[in-house]
Amino acid sequence: MAKERVLITVKTYPTLSKKYTELVCTAGFREDGSWIRIYPSPFRFLNDTQRYRKYQWIELDLVKNKKDPRPESYSPTNIDDIALGNVVGTEQGWAHRKKLILEPNTVYTKLETVIAGAKADEFSLAIFKPAEIQEFVVEETDTEWEIGKFEAAKAALDQGSLFDESNDDFKIMPKLPYKFKYRFVDDVGKVSNMMIEDWEIGQLYLNCLKNSTPEKAAQKVREKYLDDFARTKDLYLFLGTTRLWHSRAPNPYVIIGTFQPPFTDQLSLL
Q: Hey, what long-range contacts does 147-156 have (CB within 8 A, 24 or more apart)?
């Protein structure tokens, strides 16, 4: 058991689980800049004083997850002992965030290099800089969770999740009726379509849906991720493999988060 200090940069949209009710992949960076994945993460079972934000430092006890082959995966040992620290802000064009995240790490620009890292079990998390975002793809999918998975997750909740045994107000997150993807080109011309599974894209869709139709809400998401992030920001992608397909699929990665500082004139920061 070791206390880890982690800068949270990734929270994925929840998926259903027979054992945990739902699973959220949380990932971030240690103080030395190295990646770490907190899996499974009990985020929505935490009380209000423990719910961490993106770009917030947290401190908790973690042990290597022996059931997860991905090298960066660690499990929390005591969810009641999560300490929240400061939030790293966006001053000076995200200068502090870039120093903590980009400077200590390799920013990959060739997708085959990232895939090879997973195949060799060297890493399963990466910062990727596409040469070009060609399109933001919106695909319709099932509007409800698969009934077997939903019933299993509901049974786990009724019996008391490993994370919480008495949360009567807990509600399973709604199933998103769309898959959101970026179509991008890497620096050797390879074109890829990759799913975006971060919490923010799902929450953005649900927020837009409150006063709109599903189609218009999806269009609002497209405008944010294509017209804003991809067209006007210095966009980087946080990539992560799934546990099931790590080292097995031709491309085991999905986009688990975005990092989009504004373009800055470097001379203005000197």
A: 149/16, 149/18, 150/16, 152/16, 152/17, 152/18, 153/16, 153/17, 153/18, 153/21, 153/22, 154/21, 155/18, 156/17, 156/18, 156/19, 156/20, 156/21
For 185-198, how does the pLDDT look when each residue is reduced to its tens digit (9 = 90+)? 999 999 999 999 99
Same domain, 35 and 136: no
Angstrom distance (rounded) from CA 94 to CA 55: 11
Q: What is the pTM of this model?
A: 0.89
Of 32, 64, 92, the residue that ends a domain is 92
- Asked if the structure places residue 245 within a domain, the reply is yes
Domain of 223, CATH number, reads 2.40.50
What is the residue whose two structure tokens read 């880890």?
A: 4
Q: How far is CA 11 from the centre of its chain?
A: 4
